[in-house]
UniProtKB/TrEMBL annotation:
Keywords: Cytoplasm, Molybdenum cofactor biosynthesis. Gene3D superfamilies: 3.10.20.10, Cytidine Deaminase, domain 2. One of its GO terms (molecular function) is sulfurtransferase activity. One of its GO terms (cellular component) is cytoplasm. It comes from Caldimonas brevitalea. It comes from the Bacteria. One of its GO terms (biological process) is Mo-molybdopterin cofactor biosynthetic process. The active site is at C117. This is Sulfur carrier protein FdhD. Belongs to the FdhD family.
Length: 276
């Protein structure tokens, strides 16, 4: 049982006083805003990263981060996750296999994550992971069309309660090949939302079954790299991709869609096959 003096994990939503102005009229009111708190990730007692995140689904977030960043190779290499609240944020302790921990120590990466993006403290250009493992041929979704992608996006808004309350939350969702959206995770950071989704999927057989990822953001190279590392065959974003995202997706055989809005979408990979 939690001691009485131990902090509680912060709520995802906060109420703050505001002054509303509309057409010259001003009034005191309150508004609901999304929580953004430091979440420290440690492996076998050694601090590794501090991410600014929304304090929901933190076990899924930690597991997804460990998988998508290559700290562990399979969920079985994570032996336990302990989430503890602290006055300054949340501490998430992961116990991982010795082999994974030894590999992690040799990476020499110290990261400070933000809700924006960057290369997360990589020490040199040579340390950038720009050669993701190709998506296995048996997992590729060569028949995926924009119609199925847009069908999944049409279901996204109703699965985003935190964003509905605040307008400040990204989401990552998992869809079946027919466009049926089966899971959605939210976070203030787009990378965090994807890690939460990966961690949720890793608890079951979903990662080994056909499907694709949708995100309510642009498609950066980090998102492509995370998906490729898990062998996920397709990524669709509501906004634009970057040039490096397109390059990585093309080289590893990941289908990449952008500008998935309303009735249209743009595919940046596999264009010859899409026009057959």
């Amino acid at each position: 049982m939690k001691p009485d003096d131990m902090p509680e994990t912060p709520d995802a939503l906060c109420t703050v006083p505001v002054v509303r102005s509309q057409r010259g009229d001003r009034c005191a009111a309150s508004d609901t805003v999304l929580a953004e708190v430091p979440v420290a990730l440690s492996f076998n007692g050694v601090a590794h990263a501090v991410m600014m995140a929304t304090p929901t689904d933190l076990e899924a977030f930690a597991l997804g981060f460990a998988l998508s960043e290559g700290v562990i190779e399979t969920p079985a290499q994570c032996y336990g996750i302990d989430v503890q609240a602290h006055p300054r944020g949340v501490d998430v302790q992961l116990q991982v296999a010795t082999r994974a921990f030894e590999r992690l120590k040799h990476q020499r990466r110290t990261m400070e994550g933000r809700s924006g993006c960057g290369v997360c403290g990589v020490e040199s250009l040579a340390a950038l992971d720009l050669d993701p493992t190709p998506v296995p041929a048996e997992r590729r979704l060569d028949g995926l069309q924009a119609e199925q992608v847009l069908q999944a996006f049409a279901q996204l808004a109703e699965r985003q309660p935190l964003n509905a309350a605040t307008g400040a939350c990204h989401a990552a969702g998992w869809s079946l090949p027919d466009g049926s959206l089966v899971d959605v995770l939210e976070d203030v950071g787009r990378h965090n939302a994807l890690d939460k989704l990966i961690g949720r999927l890793a608890h079951g057989p979903a990662l080994q079954r056909p499907g694709f990822v949708i995100v309510s953001s642009r498609a950066s190279y980090e998102l492509v790299r995370k998906c490729a590392r898990l062998g996920l065959p397709a990524l669709a974003a509501i906004s634009a991709p970057t040039s490096l995202a397109v390059d990585l997706a093309t080289r590893c055989g990941l289908r990449l869609f952008g500008f998935c809005r309303d009735e249209g979408a743009v595919e940046y990979t596999g264009t010859a096959a899409a026009l057959r």
